[in-house]
Design brief:
Layout lengths: L2 E4 L6 H11 L2 E2 L4 E2 L5 E4 L10 H14 L3 E3 L3 H10 L10 H9 L3 H16 L5 E3 L4 E3 L14 H9 L2 E5 L5 E3 L11 E4 L8 E3 L2 E3 L9 E7 L3 E6 L15
Parallel strand pairs: 1-4, 4-5, 7-10, 10-12
Antiparallel strand pairs: 1-13, 2-3, 6-7, 8-9, 11-12, 13-14
Helix pairs in contact: 2-5, 3-5
InterPro entries: Ap4A_hydrolase (IPR050126), Calcineurin-like_PHP (IPR004843), Metallo-depent_PP-like (IPR029052), MPP_PrpE-like (IPR041780), Ser/Thr-sp_prot-phosphatase (IPR006186)
GO molecular function, one term: phosphatase activity
Protein name: Diadenosine tetraphosphatase ApaH/serine/threonine PP2A family protein phosphatase
Length: 247
């Protein structure tokens, strides 16, 4: 088994399609495939902030649910969009407003199509993904070794938001502990959630959210090769978004 794990997309469709091309994935009309039968893994935060969240949902749904060459786990933005589509009272902010604007511009039939695809993706996804064939675990914001194997509220909070302290930064972001510094396991933990300028390797963990939506790049981590592949972002660069846990 060979896998390509892709970091936070946040509605950056053009960058995603370019990265798929660089990774060797091909679209033969109505179906995507890889000539070497590699598998994609999306580690969450498909939508929000970027220009094409609806089309990213369509593409990821096709790759996961139809073509079955990809796996998906949700991020915190996916979780919030799911709750919005369920009719829950969520705050339309922190990027969700861009997805909602796209969604509300659609006719009712297409709204139903998009909503149903996102709900199905979310409800068929695990909280995190164990990949024993390549000795890895994929979790949106990471996962402590002691939590692997569990499925509970504590685990859900950790994999969606990270190791939060309950405090917040002046800009409203939660204060998070740098859990990766204390990881001692022998399995790769591949995650995203916190934008970094370059993939951040700490112990046997790697953060591949390289801030595509903030103008940096969209990144994939290939296993078992342990290889980084990336493409440049087409979005404006926002330097202040890359201040957290830089080495």
């Amino acid at each position: 088994m060979k896998v390509d794990i892709i970091g936070d997309i946040h509605g950056c469709l053009d960058e995603l399609i370019e990265l798929l091309d660089v990774l060797g994935y091909r679209d033969k009309g109505a179906q995507w495939y890889h000539p070497d039968k590699r598998q994609l893994v999306f580690l969450g935060d498909l939508t929000d902030r970027g220009p094409s969240s609806v089309d990213v949902i369509h593409l990821v749904y096709q790759l996961v649910m139809k073509d079955k060459i990809a796996k998906y786990i949700p991020g915190n933005h996916c979780d919030k969009l799911y709750r919005y589509f369920q009719g829950n009272n969520v705050k339309i902010q922190h990027g969700l407003e861009t997805t909602v604007e796209e969604y509300q511009a659609l006719d009712r039939k297409e709204q139903s199509n998009v909503r149903n695809k996102m709900i199905k993706l979310y409800e068929n996804s695990p909280l995190y993904l164990e990949l024993p064939e390549v000795n890895a675990v994929v979790a949106h914001a990471g996962i402590k070794e002691s939590l692997i194997g569990r499925q509970d509220k504590r685990v859900k909070s950790f994999v969606l938001y990270g190791d939060t302290t309950g405090e917040t930064l002046p800009d409203g972001r939660p204060v998070r502990r740098d859990w990766a510094q204390h990881y001692t396991g022998d399995r790769w933990i591949v995650y995203g959630h916190t934008p970094v300028l370059d993939p951040r390797f700490v112990n046997k963990t790697v953060n591949i959210d390289t801030g595509a939506v903030f103008g940096n790049k969209l990144t994939a981590f290939r296993l078992p090769e342990e290889e980084i592949v990336d493409v440049p972002s087409k979005q404006p660069f926002v330097e202040e978004k890359f201040s957290y846990f830089q080495d």
